[in-house]
């Protein structure tokens, strides 16, 4: 099969049918590959809003929407194989198209897509060997913490959890045995900011072979490109902003070093966690609207963070000047994202707020078009045991808001009603304010 599709059509085709289908060989030979090679990385770079939408494919029918190659296996041109694809676990044209599109958007030389964000982390951790040391944060998504705990208990991996917002705490545990540094920024759910560039440089100095991996789920490639700051691997849960509608699970990995890309591809093919053709298609569709969704989500989140702060709540959001690492975040990222958390001072009050909200759905996850409210200690981070949560000063009353694209006034009104109904605020002559236990220390 021709990669360029430039071979002459088969001479056997009748002239009338050739007129009707000028680019198609009716005997089935030398058809251009479809839809690969998709969005070329080396071509002209447009602004991100354009790049998100713009894709090219060599589809034989010039389909506007890239076809779903819902096929487990592919016929080969000879007994020795020879086809570009042989089996969907190893590769699939729809998945390839998505991977090339994402590589372009993520400023990467290669992207790989798998069945969930946790599958992406699982693939990364397959690079570890017993005795290897991993340095990571003390505030991490619960599932990440769980997988690292499993590996330290059962896989002989030594995991150091430190406060990654403090570079000196990281350098204290870095050594030539550190083969991986795993960073989340902003962290989920305490919204702590980590200096990717400084930590990556320190890690590479301690061990030049150390792989600095960044979970970019909270930001998406629209707002942050960790590879440009010195990371070796960036991964994201595609379940969140990249797809944006909570209708699929996906994970994305991206690298600049093609040798690392090959090492990551191996476990994907070997274990079969590559993203299915249909979910690849859905994710490609979703990513095209990333900018319009994120712009709206972010401006809503800013208004909601300001609303809560102005009424005396301790709010964690990097779009607020009161965030202790406001400057650091803005030196790395192009926006604050749409996840924020706040405290009420009382677990029962927090529970009542969550249960009183109507527009805000009580759900885990984030990055979707509709707004969500949750209590991380009981939901997304329940897999971190209570003792560890206490050691890491994880507030049990924390409420996480994952802001969607709805009308900001409606979201604020619903939240305000929930705050009043739950007794989280006291009404004054001037309006209302958080009960004293909830105010910023
Ligand atoms: C920061 C972060 N990373 C990774 C994941 C894992 O993604 P997934 O649910 O797609 O496995 C999640 C949530 O699940 C998350 O919040
Ligand atoms: N029951 C799930 C919880 C998923 S939490 C999803 C998301 N990352 C979030 O932070 O809300 C589990 O055990 O993983």
UniProtKB/TrEMBL annotation:
It comes from the Eukaryota. Its cofactor is pyridoxal 5'-phosphate. GO terms for biological process: 'de novo' L-methionine biosynthetic process; transsulfuration. It catalyses: L,L-cystathionine + H2O = L-homocysteine + pyruvate + NH4(+); an S-substituted L-cysteine + H2O = a thiol + pyruvate + NH4(+). Keywords: Amino-acid biosynthesis, Lyase, Methionine biosynthesis, Pyridoxal phosphate. The modification N6-(pyridoxal phosphate)lysine is found at residue 240. The keyword Amino-acid biosynthesis applies. Pathway: Amino-acid biosynthesis; L-methionine biosynthesis via de novo pathway; L-homocysteine from L-cystathionine: step 1/1. Residues 1-43 are annotated as: Disordered. GO terms for molecular function: cysteine-S-conjugate beta-lyase activity; pyridoxal phosphate binding. Its EC number is 4.4.1.13. GO terms for cellular component: cytoplasm. Residues 1-20 have a biased composition (Polar residues). Belongs to the trans-sulfuration enzymes family. This is Cystathionine beta-lyase. It comes from Penicillium atrosanguineum. The lineage of its organism: Eukaryota, Fungi, Dikarya, Ascomycota, Pezizomycotina.
